[in-house]
Amino acid sequence: MHRTLRTSARGWLAGLLLLALTGTARAQLVQFGIGYERGAPPTKLQVIALRPNVAQPLYFYYTNPMPGIKKNVRITLEQIGTDQKGRVLGTATLDMVKGKETVAIPFAGAAAPGAAVAPAGAQPPKGEVWPRIEGPPFALRFTLEEGKNKTETVVPISIQEPRNYIKIVDSRYNPIQRRLSIKLRWDEPQDPPCVVTLDLQQATNPGLIAPKVGTSRAELGRGKQEVELTAEELEFNGPPPPNGRIYVTVDGYQRAFLFKCSYTEGNLVQLRDEVRARIIAPRYALPSAKLPVLLEVDPKTVEEGEDDSPQRAQVDLQFDRVGDGKSYVPVAGSPFRGLREQQISYKFEDGSLLLRTLVADRVVELNTEGINGRRSLQIRLLNGNGTKAIPLADEQNQRDEKVSLFSAEPNNRFAPLRFVKDKDSVIGELVLDGTPVEDLKLDNYVEKVYAGTTILKPYARMRARSLDQAPVARVAFFIADVPFNDEIPKGIVPIEGNYDAALKAWIVKEEMAVPEELRGTKLYLGVQATTATGVSTTRKVQLALFKGPPPLPTVATIIGVVMRGKYQQPDTLVSLTKVEPGKAHVPLRTQTNETGGFEFKDVAPGDYRLLAKRQGAEANIPVTVPRGKDKVGVLQINLQAVIR
User: Matching CATH topology for 2-159 and 441-546?
Assistant: First the structure.
């Protein structure tokens, strides 16, 4: 891996910190070597090439280029900060080096400068101290002292991108089998093994259901130089996205390889070699002093002499605090040095300098405290001097490389992004909102309920939310027999609601049965509305609760139809008279409708006779209204001619 560092990478590293020779021995040839494994033949020390997110031992060597013996050779190892000042890491003294001889440099650690760190993603054992090397950019200086002669050599440290040492052998998607496959190879493996993982994100593959079958993680190493990552039986909620993204993480370096996938074709295609920047933030968020925002930056292959290396380039992140879309101000710490968060920490161990690297997406804590409404974030990438914007890939309008993060559709739960070509920037728009729903009310319920028999199907209505507010994300209905205020009582499982556009109300998905076993004599019907930022509002109404079955009805409705043969008889007089009428009894009368139908409401239990007359024909039938009946079934009265 370190022997195959790309020429382009060496070019920008050499431009970063040139080898320097100073002092009285300026013209004397000095030779330092480096080995990445114990006992391996050293190579000329020009660039220190490290893998991301691993700990690697480095073995340094000194070669006496002269024919004579050198004694008491003192070597000092320093880190070089952005102020160009050196800070000692370790020292070594070589008692004697014969002419043309190469010997190991036994560095002993000096007092650790700066604070101790334990980089995330490559944690040292508990209690160990790993001081941090200042940067990016990162560099070491070797100072050689031979008597009065002093020589300095500055060596840049490169944290390699995985594409410098890992190769893609094959990549494809089978739409019939719904199988994704990516093969990777490591031609010059070394310790520690290289971990590769398949990264399928819902942010860039909307509707994707996490696959349960496949090999999403594998290790490359000396015994296994080629592996295959797979995801099988892929499923989506809805149709697959036409512009899906497939990522591969290598050595913890996210998006080491980026593919596009339409989920309808065969071979996967790697994205164009361009610089990409995205803001990953919630579409709706509560105002907060520390709102986490993830910055995804993907570098392109750096060419010779370019001033936008991953270590030197800057990330400029600005926030529109006012909300006018123009008044952008840098967030705290911006611009950030390095396209991603990069750290190197160290310790000396068994004659080696052990360097532990961290490369991760940068997480910025945005202060949005006290802000409500629509706001936007703008990300730009600048060259090493901060004087020129680095061109970005258009992931919004390029037909074949669109990404769903740039969609403003409701199913995008992340802040919708927008590409601004003339400013080489990407803007993300989010809504900051801590307001609850207003005028939340329950509707369509009965106030008197009976345990074990009453069924409720309530509605919930509330004031419409504006575009500057987080929408209602969830409405839940519940029944409780204990008092509550702002939260659903523990142990109660609510029933979700759906929004009905015609009714302009949230309707419970399932009918709600009043439980048969209740602890108290009071019952509450409740509803909780929660916004997309998690702000909940709860309302309740108290219902009159009765134990046991409801009382039998005291009145009923009689419905029927008058026929003559097979023909319906409209406009026919129908009367209902009690068989044993009391003094206060008044017969009920009505006319049939256009289909011959009739109805008598609020009829008390008892025995009755129904009489229907029309054009010399009549019918007279008995009807009994029993107690506990709310309806007396459909009665058909057939008219017959009457001879008088």
Answer: yes
**Cα separation, 142 vs 63, whole angstroms:** 13
- 220 close to 262: Cβ distance less than 8 angstroms: no
CATH topology of domain 556-641: Immunoglobulin-like (2.60.40)
State the fold for domain 2-159.
Immunoglobulin-like (2.60.40)
Helix (H) or strand (E) holding 14: helix 7-16
Q: Which of 296, 328, 329 is nearest to 315 (CA)?
A: 296
Count the Cβ atoms, other than its own, within 10 Å of residue 233: 12
- State the Cα–Cα distance between residues 346 and 77, nearest whole angstrom: 12
443, 457 contact by CB (below 8 A): no
Domain ranges of the chain: 2-159, 441-546, 556-641
Work out the end-to-end distance of the chain between its first and last CA atoms, rounded to an integer number of angstroms. Answer: 118
Distance of alpha carbon 524 from alpha carbon 450, whole angstroms: 13
- C-alpha 205: how far from its chain's center? 11
At the top level of CATH, the class of 441-546 is: mainly beta
Q: Facing residues of 480 across strands? A: 524
Sorting pLDDT into bands at 50, 70 and 90, what band is 450? confident
Question: Is the C-alpha dihedral spanning 252, 254, 256, 257 positive or negative?
Answer: positive
Radius of gyration of the chain (CA): 40
Q: Which of 299-313, 464-478, 624-638 has the lowest mean pLDDT?
A: 299-313
Region label for 222, one of left (φ > 0), alpha (ψ between -120 and 50) or beta (otherwise): alpha
Hey, what are 415's tokens? 């802040």
Q: What is the DSSP letter of 421?
A: G
CB 49 within 8 A of CB 138: no
Would you mind telling me the total number of residues written for the chain in this entry?
Answer: 644
The predicted structure's pLDDT at residue 30:
58
Report helix, strand or coil for 16: helix
Q: Is the peptide bond before 137 cis (omega within 30 degrees of 0)?
A: yes
Tokens representing 588? Answer: 């009920």
pLDDT at position 519: 60
Q: Which residues pair with 460 in a beta bridge?
A: 442, 506
Instruction: Tell me if 209 sits within 8 A of 236, measured CB to CB.
Output: yes
Cα–Cα dist 440/476, whole Å: 12
Burial class (CB in 10 A: 0-12, 13-18, 19+), 450: middle
Please calculate the CA angle 337-414-341 and round it to the nearest 5 degrees.
20
Is the CB of residue 62 less than 8 Å from the CB of residue 103?
A: yes
Strand partners, 317: 379
Q: Which helix (H) or strand (E) holds 355?
A: strand 352-360
How far, in Å, CA of 111 to CA of 114, rounded?
10
Provide the token pair at 141: 């200086």
**Residue 8: C-alpha distances to residues 13, 47, 215, 398 (Å):** 9, 12, 34, 28
Element containing residue 506 per DSSP (H, E): strand 505-508
| Tens digits of residue pLDDT in 316-338 | 999 999 998 889 999 999 999 99
Do 352 and 57 meet the contact criterion of CB atoms below 8 Å apart? yes
Going by pLDDT thresholds of 50, 70 and 90, the confidence category of residue 637 is confident
Q: How far is CA 501 from CA 476, 507, 518, in A?
A: 17, 10, 35
